[in-house]
Amino acid sequence: MLFSQLNLHPAIFKAIEACGYTTPTPVQAKSIPSILAGKDIIASAQTGSGKTAAFVLPALHHLSEKKGPRKPCILILTPTRELANQITKAANTYGKFLRFNIVSLVGGMPYHHQIKDLARGADIIVATPGRLMDHWENKRVDLSAIEMLVLDEADRMLDMGFIDDVQAIAKLTPAHRQTLLFSATVDKKLSKITQQLLKNPQRIDLSQEKISAPKIKQELYKANNAHHKTRLLKHFLNDANIYKAIIFSATKINADKLANELRNEGFSAAALHGDLKQNVRNRTIEQLRHGKIQFLVATDVAARGIDIHDVTHVINYDLPKFCEDYVHRIGRTGRAGKSGVAISFVLPSDAKHLQRIERYIGERIKMVHNVEMDQADFTKPSPVSIDKVSIQKNKSAAHHDAAPSKKKFSSAKKRWSSNDRYNKPSEKNNQRFQKKTGNKDR
């Protein structure tokens, strides 16, 4: 199937062509015709499968056929600010030849900008549940004309405790609305909720397809203790083959601590987690995108919704709590047809959880034995320690433009550009590469 066969509005098809897409992904090919036919659907598919376009494209098409007074017609709920930003960006990209107002309502951002956007009239609202309820309670948003309700990453909204707000919001919309639910997985608890929110939904299940991206090389390294993990991490960060990396930490405190320690050793690093203000989070992501920082130390707030094409490595300093988050984490690399590497450090206490992750992804992850690292005494504490005073002193510095270690980062760029394995081409070669493979991020 081609996008030209989906009978989307010509202006939407023009935008898709401008992005260089010709063939829809499986979840798009199966979902879009059913959505255009007005059906409720429950769709589950792996990360990176193009779920965002699967509901954004038919939503834009639905709007293109509407006439009359402007009221919010499409409501998209998502659990995190990063995902909301990604969806808003996609809607603006695919709808750039149409004149629709797309408003993002997320926590951590100034109210006055959102109030001003709502006052101009919204066609599509992309929101996190808590901030949307706040605007509704203050009578700033009218949901009485919603015709399509989209629940994106519904499993995560359930895990994060948003489901009560989601159910309350659904009651504020017309009963005859069309409801679309997209999720990486659908368990029994989520199935009960879908029975309340959807009407005779069509089930589209692609979650059993191979979960791990084939171009992501996955490796495991044993660590004896926390000090051993830190020494392992520094060993990898000194490897010039790492161009950009996202390092996942289990807690916000450890993300700050690790980012501070890396900066003190000359690495260009910053932290990203839910306690930071949204403008700080946005700035940090842009710093990584534009090469102002090389290493992002993040909690699972970065596991979904961050789309940076040249992240070459993901490092699981701590394994994720939920198996599905492992898939979302490693999906931050190996994007736009490039290869990527996912490295995980495992403690002896992680053995059972590692087995659950391997069962979930349907494959064993290779345990790597590195002689060079074994020769070092990793059981001793790292010579650099960070006390509470230095953490507090440097905390604010983490949220500003980190002065990158130009020597290390420029060396990485030079090595990367000449490394055939990872292939970071020039702009001209990149266009040639994309044309040849026809593989781009959606």
Structure description:
The chain is α/β, with parallel strands linked by helices. It folds into two domains: 3-205, Rossmann fold (3-Layer(aba) Sandwich), CATH 3.40.50; 216-437, Rossmann fold. Helices cover 42% and strands 14% of the residues. The protein contains 18 helices and 14 strands. The protein has helices spanning 10-19, 26-36, 51-64, 81-94, 111-119, 129-137, 154-159, 163-172, 188-197, 226-237, 252-264, 278-289, 323-330, 351-361, 371-374, 388-395, 406-417, 427-437, and strands at 41-44, 74-77, 102-105, 124-127, 148-151, 178-183, 202-205, 216-222, 245-248, 269-272, 295-298, 313-316, 340-346, 366-367. The strands form two sheets. It has a seven-stranded parallel β-sheet with strand order 3-4-2-5-6-1-7. Strands 10-11-9-12-13-8-14 form a seven-stranded parallel β-sheet, with helices on both faces. Helix 3 (51-64) crosses helix 4. It is globular and about 65 Å long. The two termini are 17 Å apart. The model is unreliable at 374-407 and 414-442 (pLDDT under 50). It is an enzyme of class 3 (hydrolase). One of its GO terms (biological process) is response to temperature stimulus. Residues 32-204 form the Helicase ATP-binding domain. Residues 405-416, 433-442 have a biased composition (Basic residues). Residues 392-442 are annotated as: Disordered.
